Amino acid sequence: MASQPRPTYRLSPVALVCLLGPAAALAQESTPGQTELPGVTVRGQAPTSRSGVAGFGDVPLVRTPLQARTVPLDELKDRGLTRLSDLTQLDASVSDSYNSEGYWDYLSVRGFVLDNRYNYRRDGLPISGETSIPLQNKAAIELLKGTSGIQAGTSAPGGLVNYVVKRPEGRVRSIELGYESPGTVGVAADVGERFGDSQRFGLRVNAAFERLDSHLHDDQGHRKLLAVAGDWRLTPDTVLEAEFETSKRSQPSQPGFSLLGDRLPEPVNPRINLNNQPWTQPVIMEGNTGSLRLQHRFSPQWRFTAHYGVQRLETDDRLAYAFGCTSEVVWHRYCSDGSFDLYEFISDNEVRRTDALNLFTDGRFTTGPLKHELATGVLLTRFKARFEPQIYTPSRDPAAPDDPDIIGKGTVDGNTMVLPSNGATSPNTNRTERSTEFYARDAIQLSPQWSAWLGLRHTRIHRESIGTDGSNPTDYKQSFTTPWAALSYEFLPHHFGYVSWGRGVESKVVPNRTDRYTNPGQSLPPMKSRQVEVGFKASTPGFDWGVNLFDIDRPRTACIEEEGGCAERFDGSDRHRGLEATAGLRWRQWQFDGSLMLLDAEIQGSQTARLNGREPINVPKRTFKAQARYRVPGVNGLSLLASLTHEGKRLAADDRVPEDLPEIHLPSWTRYDLGLVHEQKWQGQQLRWRAGIQNVTDKKAWRESPFMFDHVYLYPMAPRTFFVSLQTDLQ
φ and ψ at 421, to 5 degrees? Predict the structure, then answer.
C-alpha cells in the first residue's frame, strides 16, 4: 500500500516567540553540568498522585482544581482487566457505550460519550481511538473528567483518555502467562536495561501474543504486539526518546440484541453470538504507532520539549448484524416475536493516519509576590482517513438479489436463515483534517493558601471530506478559543477546595443526505460546551477523599422540519449536573477504594416541547464502584481482592426513537468480582500469581442500551468468568 506523504508544519512568528522566548531569555542561566535532567521514566505504581493529561505537569492531583485519575497497569492486571472499557468497573463516572467483543472501545464519562476521533491521547499526543489498543506496553491509563477545552482543540465534553507508554527504567526481566475462560491464553514479555557510560542509554522491549476465545460461541481470534522504547541522555540537560509499537488483532465482533417490538425482553444467554454465520469474517485491526521526543533543560527552572508522533491504522471492519423488522415495518428494534432482518457490513482496507507535533516550553518564575508555573506551546495535527466502497446491505439470495422479500432472517435464540451477501457496494467517505492549536497554561500561587489557574487554547481547523466515488465534497475552516479558569484554597494542610469554569468545542457537518436534509454538507457553527465545577479533596496518610459538583451544558442539534424536508440546526442543549465522590482508605491490612456518581441529565431549550426535561438514552442516574484488598496476616505476599459494580436504571428508548415507542428503562444491576494476588520469591525470581472470578453470582442483566446507527441495542452482561496468570520477574 502506498505510503502517506510526510506532513509539512509551519510556525508563525507568534508561535516561535511563545515557544522560544522564555527559553532564550533564560538559556544563559544554564551552566553545563549544573543540573541533571530529572528522570523521564514512568513506573507502574509510582506516579498515581499525578496525571499528565491534567495539563499541569508534576503538580499532584490533590492540588489541581479538576478531576483526573491515573490507573497503573498492575492495578488492571490484579483484577483481570484487559481493555480500556474495563475502566467502567473502577470509576463511577465511567460507563459503557456500545462495548462489544472483538471491536474497539467506547466510553461514556459524566454521561457524554467520548469521541473516538478526538478524545484520545498517547503520551499526550492526539491519536485515533477507532482501533483496538493493546495495554501490555502501557504503564498506566490516565482519565480526565469534564470539559477538556484546556487540553484539546475539539473534543466531546466528557473528558480525555491518555495512554502512558512504558519507558526504560533500568533492569527489567519479566514474563507473564495468562488464561481466561473459556479458552483465551496469552504470553507477554517485558525486558529493559540501561547501559553505556553513566547509563546514558536505555532500552525497553515488550512483546505479547494471545489466542482469543471469548465467552461468545465461535468467537475465536488472535492478537499480537511488539513494542520498543529507548532513550539517549545526550547531556545531563538533554534527553532524546524514541518508541514504536506494532500490533494486530483479528476476531469476529459482537452485534447487539434489541427491544422486541415495544417491550424489553428478559436478558438472553450472553453466549449467543448473532454474528455466527458461515460467511462471517473477522474484524482485523492493525496499528503502527511511534513517537520521538526531545527534552532540553535550559536552567533549573525552564525546559523545552519537542514531541512528534505518528499513528497509522489499517482496518477490515466486518459484521453480520441484526437490524430492524421488515414484517412489522420498524427499523429501530426487532420484531415482537424475536425475529429480525439480517444485514452485512464490510468495509475493507480502511486506512487512518494521524501526525502530531507538539512544541512547548514550561517552567517556573516569580513576579513580585506571585509564583508562576507556565506552559506555552503549539500543537499541529493532521489526520487522513482513506476508505474503499463498502457493503452495507441486507444479505439476500443471489438467485433473487432484488427481491425485497428474500432477505436474511434470524431470531434472538441464535437461529438464523443463512444467506450469503449480495455483494452490492455503496460509497464511503474520505476525510482530511488539519488543526493548529496555540495554548498557554499558568498555575499562579497567590499566597501560601490561594492559587489561581488559567488556561487558553486557540484552535484553527481545516476539514475536508468527499465520497469514494467523488460525490458530496465538503470543505470548511473554523477558528475558536477555549478559555479555562479556576481558583483553589488550602483550608487545612493537604485539604483543598476549588471552583473552576471552562469551555470545550465540537465541530459538526450536516450529513450529505439530500433525501433527508435541506442543508446537506453544511458546516454548523462551533458547538461550544460549558462546565462549572466546585469541589473539595484531600490526601492525608492512610485516607484520600474528594467530592465535587459539576454542571455541563452542551449544545445539541436536531433535524428541524421545514418545507421540503428538515434542516439540521442547533436545538437546545444537553445539560448534565452531577455529584461525584471518591474515597481511598488504607488501614492495617485493609485497602478500600470507592466512587459514587449521582447524575441529573436532561434536554433543555428544545423547539420540540415534549423533549424538554427528557433524560438521555443509556445514561444511568446513579453508579457506585468499590474495590477492597486484604493482606492476609501470616501468609507473606498474599492479598484477597473484591469488587462491587452497581449501575442504576437507565433509559433504553422512548417516543423519540421512533415516536410510537413507550418509555422503556433497563433495571439497575449489581455485579461482584473476587480475586487474589500472591507474591513470593523462588530461586532468585519474584513470582506474582493472580487469579479471580468475575461476575461471581453469574448475574443475568442487560449491561447497557446504546442508541447507535439509528437503532436501539442491548448488550448482556458477560457470564461468570475465571482467570489466572503467573508473572515471573528475574532479580
Answer: -70, 150
SS3 666: strand
The helix or strand, by DSSP H or E, that contains position 441, with its residue range, turns out to be strand 429-445
Q: Quick one: DSSP state of residue 524?
A: P
Q: Which of 485, 409, 501 is nearest to 442 (CA)?
A: 485
Instruction: Look at residue 399 in the predicted model and tell me its pLDDT.
Output: 59
Q: How far apart are CA 556 and CA 574, in angstroms?
A: 6
Query: In this structure, which amino acid lies at residue 480?
Result: F
Beta bridge partners of residue 334, listed in sequence order = 260
Of 298, 226, 286, 293, the closest CA to residue 52 belongs to 293
Superfamily of segment(s) 13-730: TonB-dependent receptor, beta-barrel domain (2.40.170.20)
SS3 content of the chain, % helix, strand, coil (to 5): 5, 55, 40
d(CA 222, CA 643): 29
Query: What 3-state DSSP class applies to 129?
Result: coil
pTM of the complete model: 0.91
- Give the count of beta carbons closer than 10 Å to the beta carbon of residue 29: 12
- What is the largest distance, in Å, between two alpha-carbon atoms of the chain? 84
Half-sphere exposure at residue 78, Cβ-oriented, CA atoms within 13 angstroms:
22
The residue with cell 485519575 is 69
Q: Could you give the CA distance from residue 340 to residue 328 in angstroms, rounded to a whole number?
A: 10
Residues of the chain scoring pLDDT < 70: 1-49, 395-406, 420-422, 659
From 244, 228, 122, 247, select the one nearest 168 (Cα to Cα): 228
332 within 8 A of 324, measured Cβ to Cβ: yes
Q: Are 18 and 377 in contact (CB under 8 A)?
A: yes
Cell of 130: 477507532
Please report the pLDDT score of residue 15 as a whole number: 37
Give the contacts of 662 (CB within 8 A, at least 6 positions apart). 262, 654, 655
What amino acid is encoded at 309 in this protein?
A: G
Query: Which residues are 543's β-sheet partners?
Result: 540, 585
- Identify whether the C-beta of residue 290 lies closer than 8 Å to the C-beta of residue 243: yes
pLDDT digits (tens, 9 = 90+) for 471-530: 888 999 999 999 999 999 999 999 999 999 999 999 988 887 777 788 888 889 999 999
Residue found under cell 424538554: 612
SS3 call for 63? helix
Closest CA to 148 of 126, 179, 178, 176: 126
**Run of H or E including 545:** strand 543-562
Domains of the chain, residue spans:
13-730
Q: Decide: helix, strand or coil at residue 12.
A: coil
From residue 472, how far is each of 69, 428, 431, 464, 486 by CA, in Å? 42, 11, 12, 11, 44
CA distance 149 to 107: 18
